[in-house]
Design brief:
By secondary structure, the protein is mainly α. The chain contains three helices and two strands. Helix 1 packs across helix 2, helix 1 packs parallel to helix 3 and helix 2 packs antiparallel against helix 3.
């Protein structure tokens, strides 16, 4: 249950950053959920291949999901901001 709340929170956070950057919000929310699920699956798969204890596999899955989400957060944060009409300074023809 807490995992679902975390995914919703993270997807909303990524969506708000994407909206500030002028990116499609729905797609970036989808990418956030996909990053969590694939990261968790990858961690579980690696833990299963290494034949670790179940608790360690779960922790490894959460760690990989966190790394995937952090990576997505850094990617969307690094995108350039949207330039609006009022950002252009008419006097010296530069953007502020």
């Amino acid at each position: 249950m807490l995992e679902i709340i975390g995914i919703i929170f993270f997807a909303r956070k990524i969506g708000s950053i994407a909206q500030e950057k002028g990116l499609p919000v729905g797609w970036w929310r989808f990418y956030a959920v996909l990053a969590w699920v694939l990261g968790e699956f990858t961690g579980g798969f690696i833990g299963g291949l290494l034949q670790l204890d179940l608790l360690v596999i779960i922790l490894l899955a959460y760690l990989c999901a966190g790394i995937a989400c952090f990576t997505l957060y850094k990617i969307v944060s690094a995108k350039p901001d949207v330039m609006h009409e009022f950002d252009f300074d008419q006097q010296d023809n530069t953007y502020q």
